[in-house]
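User: I'm designing a mutation panel for Peptide/nickel transport system substrate-binding protein and want to avoid disrupting the core. Could you give me a predicted structure to guide residue selection? Please restate the sequence first so the numbering is unambiguous.

Assistant: Good idea. Sequence first, for numbering, then the predicted structure tokens:
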Amino acid sequence: MKKWLAGTAIALTLALPAVAQDDTLDPNARPGGGIIITYKDDVATLDPAIGYDWQNWSMIKSLFDGLMDYAPGTTELRPGLAESYDLSEDGLTYTFHLRQGVKFHNGREMTADDVKYSLDRVTDPATQSPGAGFFGSILGYDAAADGSAKGLEGVKVIDPATVQITLSRPDATFLHVMALNFASVVPQEAVDAAGGDFGKQPVGTGAFKLADWTIGQKLVFEKNADYWREGIPYLDTVTFEVGQEPIVALLRLQKGEVDVPGDGIPPAKFTEVMGDPAQAARVVEGGQLHTGYITLNVTTPPLDKLEVRQAINMAINKDRIVQIINGRAKPANQPLPPSMPGYSTDYKGYAYDVEGAKKLLADAGLADGFETELYVMNTDPNPRIAQAIQQDLSEIGIKASIKSLAQANVIEAGGAGTAPMIWSGGMAWIADFPDPSNFYGPILGCAGAVEGGWNWSKYCNEAVDADAVKADSFNDPADPARLALWSEVYQKVMEDAPWVPVFNEERYTMKSERMGGADNLYVDPVSIPVNYDYVYVTE
């Protein structure tokens, strides 16, 4: 069956222009100018195969493109570098027809060979991509992932403008996966030339290109004048100033020196900002598919004991933690947020029960407790939340020393498996796409429990993994039977207790008076936190 993403039937037989019409352009947009975004921490990487945190996600999305994309401010799929695709009757083979004339930032035209190379690279174990597991349904993935095969058997170049991807099973999420940053198309020669440092020397096909990166000070993106989507980006430059404390960033925003404080509104200033009509008018609020959680490394004694992990779940006073962030969240009892399909409305989770937690520790032979470490990102309010967790744990005899580090260092420790416990705040999971599978594979599945992966609990239950594969082997993402299977998967995860789900947070951000564009661009569900391609300045 043929799926048309853009144009007409004749588009497959005629050479296509690189520039594509964009029906989401804002008629009020004023092209030109630049904006300043601030962050406390520097960016770890801009490599789309590696980068996987809320800070670099939207940056990478502006530098690179994949076969699929999303309409700005939404989770609605639309064409990316593929203008159309054919789907076989058995739902296993996708033939993507590429947009012709698209150029990388180095000036070379993109071809199907680049798509093949990029997918092979992200699934190569040498790359250590935290997103490799997303591609698990592609034929030959297991052999590529364990290094026994060079590249993905299921990805074939038909001709320079056509690439065919064959799956080993139906995958309800496959087109969403093709819109993830991990599926971005990169030029091999640029990766090779960077000598292992492509994350600092990125080359893509995106709306912006990296113009300057002064480590510890700033990154500057400049407009890609040859971008294939006509009319965007609106801005000439986006400057990310790093090393800025959130309180200072807010003061600079109030003075008109900053356009968006990337770390958000400091919790200590939230009530003040919302109480001032002039400032509150510049606040953008949006729902998000988010869960903040504590990871418990199941390979680190005594967290390898189920009773210990269950006790920690019962020891955390989630209501008190929600108060720390001004009530901007709801207590969580499972990995999925309430607005995600597959959420178990009848599941109650682990009740807050200090005495019950003490009994479980005693049953595990740890009546006197134990010592451990709790890693946390050093941006407020996360250290304060870590202190609340520390206090809760002390009530049942667990002495947790806090290691407050820059985001990149916490992520590194989590990926390496050296952190016994991590409070995920500032890095907590926000869905890449609105499907229950996204909360499993990279952060709870066996594929993510690898060196450099985002499954920081290093939890791997092969029986649950098999159930997850079964849940995704549907052609219809919304099939009630599929969602019921996902609900069961997450309840089984909670029985094993590799996490303490703590809260589901709402997102608040702020913008300067001169910023234009729809509010949903500032709380974009996939270009987290801001869709830089479509915002603009009004003066």
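For picking mutation sites, this is relevant: The mean pLDDT is 92. The first strand starts at residue 2 and ends at 4.
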